[in-house]
Every structure is written in structure tokens, then in C-alpha cells.
Design goal:
307 residues; D-Maltodextrin-Binding Protein, domain 2; single chain; rod-shaped; 10 helices; two-stranded antiparallel sheet; Arc Repressor Mutant, subunit A; 11 strands
Amino acid sequence: MIDLRRLRCFLVVSDELHFGRAATRLYMSQPPLTRQISALETQLGFRLFDRSSRSVTLTTAGQHFLPYARSVLEQVELAANVSRQLATGAVGNLALGYASSIALSDIFSAAIQTFCSAHPQVQLNIEEGASSQQFAQLIDGRLDIGLSRMPPPAEASEIEATCLDNEPLIAAIASDSPLARQAQLTLAELSAYPLIAFPTDYGSGLNQIIDALYRRHALTPLPGPKGKQITSIIALVAAGRGVAVVPQCTQVLAKHGVTYRPLAEPEASAPLLLLTRKHERSPLVRAFGEIIRQTAQKQPATSVLPA
């Protein structure tokens, strides 16, 4: 294995063609520099320089070897730079999973924009999916971060959940429904209409929250059609197929034929959870986590839009 220090000595001497000046550039005296070059020549098996009392010139072999030596040191420097950037989170890849309704949150979009601006050389891979899917994906490394409405189950002890926000739930109803004439709605009033939700087997954290909310008030919702995305659910509301209980951020989908109303139940809310692996050391995960926490703290409260 060629000593990189000897290669650096060779490059400086080839630049200066003078051992005294080369030694000055290398912050060493001339005799140790001469020994380094001699040792490199011995290792290579050929002379690199023709030396005389008046001049130093590259041999033919030295001229041929020079670009290869320079390339090796450039690659070593590049590797060192990349390793420093990886260590500080300046470059790399980050896999982010999110639940459908979270994509409509200002926290979600603002955090991604801030992170990408601060880390332009990081490849952020974003994947939408049900909250329940994120646990296995985090554990096996397919995701680095999850944004979920559902806390991890007891068996997913490797995952840590941080609550970023607790978002009010609101009712989405057809604009021509009698319910749209009211300023506020109760779950009891909604329970008279089919409830449009995510499929039962989809693993939606929002479904779990809504089901628990109805049970707390001893109510059983009428089953309604299903949608795998929040946009599909709102489209079904506009089509008059039932009502939906959705996070407040959903009202940005100001679809014609849909009216949003606040719920009277004060506990009607859905958390926005940041999921990471416990003892995570990735600087990129830490950086994104810090950005989204700061973003959540700065977000102003929003009110329900009028019809």
C-alpha cells in the first residue's frame, strides 16, 4: 500500500521541481523530504526525478505516474469531504412516511420546505401510507421518520413517538344537508348519517380515534362508503354519500358542495405524532425532527372556514 504522505510529497516536488521550495510548502526540512521521495521510488521500483546540482526534472516514468498520483489524492480528499458531510447531515437520503390527512397540515408542508432549503443536497423520499404501516417500515429501516395519527403499539418498543400537535376534529357535510345550517354539530347529530371513513382494514389512526370518540359518547355510527385517501373521503361527502369526521387541516380542501363545521365535543381531536427509532443517531433524522418540532410550535391556530 502506497503511503499517502509520500504521494503528497511527490506532487509538491513535481509542482516546484525544487526540493527546498517543496520542503517549505510541506512545512518540513529538506532531508526528510528527500527520504520520503527515495522511499516512494524504492516502493514503486523506478525513479521519479532526475536530480542534479542545478535542476530537478521528472523522469518519463514520473511524468506518466503523476496524473495517477494526483487522482488518488483527489479521490481521498473527496471521500474525506463526503464523510464529513454525511457525519453532519449535509448529504444523504432521508425516508419520510406520512398518513394521508397529515399531508394537508401546514406543519407538514412548512417543515419539508424548511428542511429542503437547509439541506439542498439531501434526497428526501416521501411516502404516503396508513399509520399502522409505518411501524414495521421504521423497524426494518425502510422509513427513517414517520408522521402518524396512531401511537406505536406496545410490541413496537423500538419506536419513539413525540406529539407535535393535537388538532381539532371537525365535521365535513354536504352543503345542501340540513346540518349545514347549524354553526356547530354534535356527534349525536352526525350519527344519524352514514359515516364516510378509511377502510376498516387500512390501518388508519384516524379511524381508531373516531371510533373511540363515538364509543365514549355511547354512539354507533352508521356505516358509510370508504375512501383510502382524505381527498376521496371529501369527494364522497360532496356526492352526498354521508358525513365525515376529519382533522381541521382538511378544510383546505374547499371542494364545492362540502361545508365544514366544528364539533361540540371538546375532546374531539387527533394528534400529529413524530415517529422515530429509539436511540436514533442519524444527523438527518435529528435535523428533520428539530425542524418539524420548531415548525409545530410556531403554527397559529386556525378556525373553521365558513360555508
